[in-house]
TrEMBL record:
Pfam families: Plug, TonB_dep_Rec_b-barrel
Domain TonB-dependent receptor plug intervals: 48-153
Protein name according to UniProt: Putative Vitamin B12 transporter BtuB
Protein family (similarity comment): Belongs to the TonB-dependent receptor family.
Location in the cell: Cell outer membrane
GO annotation (BP), single: cobalamin transport
Amino acid sequence: MKKLLFITGISLCVPFVFGHAIAEEKDKQLEILDAIEIHATRSQIKPENQTASYTVITREEIKKKKHMQVKDIIQEQLGVNVVQTGPLGSSTTLFMRGANSQSTLVMIDGVQVKTNSTGSFSFAHLQMDNIERIEILRGPQSTLWGADAVGGVINIVTRKGKGKPTHTLSFEGGSFETFKETLTSSGSHESFDYSLSASNTDSEGFSAFNERRGGTENDRYSNRTFSTRLGYNFLKDGRVEFIGRYIRARSHFDGFNPLTFTFSDTLPHHINNDTVYGALPLQKALTENWDLKITPSVFVDELDTIDPTFGDSFIINRTYTVDVQNNVYINKNISTVFGFEHQATNASNASQGIALQNENQGYYLQFQFNHDNRFLLNAGVREDINTRFANKFTYKIEAAYRFLETNTRLRGGFATGFRAPSVNEILFPFFGNPNIQPEETESFEIGVEQALLADRVSVAVTYFNMDLKNQIQPNPATFIAENIGRARSQGIETSVLWQVMDDIDVNAAYTWNQAVDSSTGALLVRRPRHTASATLHHTWRNLLDWLVTVQYRSAMVSGTGRVGGRAIVRAALGYQLTKQLKLTARGENLLNKQYEESLFFGTAGISGYAGFEYSFH
């Protein structure tokens, strides 16, 4: 309670204690904070001044790589492994820096989108529609975002309309009888801006149960996605927005025979999934140096499963959040972010008689110090008050120093974090444990970044180490979830960006990660030791752009066995035929590699897709 009072008192006093200093520095300041945006760091600090491991996938990169799903472009990034159990629409989970799939917080426009029943977010239905950028913040971020941000934070940002209204009709079709049609429109007029997107995807797919193991029928998929971002600027420095996305998906899957412990491909199984989120952020500058942002949001996920083997189920997840964030520029060296978040969550599974509600209040405070863009310091604390478990106090401190003479940057940090147990881990029959406690972590990292050859080459290396206690896992004798484990994850992340020529660039990333059970030394499930990707990209006269990517993953533990390593090659190209018409094409798994991402589940062989984008005013 003392910690809570301390944070609250500091939060309320900061603007007034430093009010005189702000006035004196008004004429001296180098840069005043721009309007607050929703992103992973809650601040306007430029990426080059970040003290943490930070990646931004820009709109330009999204366009040139031409992935259909968000999970595919994230799979190519540092510290990440993505596992999909079959064709389009199959369950898709993400593991960052060796943490559990429930331990990476995923947000869309700042709206937390995990399902409370499982505690994780499935990327199965999230496509690239209307996305401006993807931000990845690696390492514990509980100080800013509370529970479940142990591995890191992924924030997906919707496009903001600007300029003369432009409309785009696009189409893509190809292997597995896959077709996608998309209509987008965006622009601005005086104080109003908008972006809209609607898409329809259908695919015959392939067998979720690996065909080489006996799978016979295709598991079909359909997806309808609507996305919008509306904004209105008022009183010079005020802004209100409505941001929303609706996804309706239907996916088929293969069942599991509990008597023979084998997968079945003979009975019809399918899932109807409806997901909607909405946010209404309102921001206004209270003074020249103090921005306030209030964001109410809602996330609802409904999962209707038809399963002849284990029985049908209908699961509903809801999350309601109100976030109040303050960004204050104290002087040319110091800024602060502080605020509070109130979140109410619930989940129900009628077939299992499960229903659980929970509330959490989080109070956070973070200071940032910047001395001449050389020395950077970031320190923060947070107190979370929860109705189901004891209060959690988390903190972090990060620092970086830039040697301007050699273009070298050193950085390091230490942070604590925690993951709250999911509803299934608390209540699911024969598995849940009402007395389960949150997992807790301590993590540190050190890194170096070096620019070479007049900034045409950039190299970054980071070592991280995370210790986890109270690990939630099933007791091998009773199968009941318990806090019986400890785990450790350490690794090295290395990236190289080389601007070979003005129109040719190479981007490579490699991660070594050893995530083990501390008591037995056994490797954790679905955490490969080695992942890597390399992309060669070329642009010709702003008419033709093409790229080739090689993506590698080493062997890993999966379920009760192992899946082998694999290296897959893909290519994508676009040709601007006219000012309005662009032709697109991509090829996936060009070497026709036969592999599994998860034991017994199928993956796509060599496949190709082609289409067009037609833009008009």
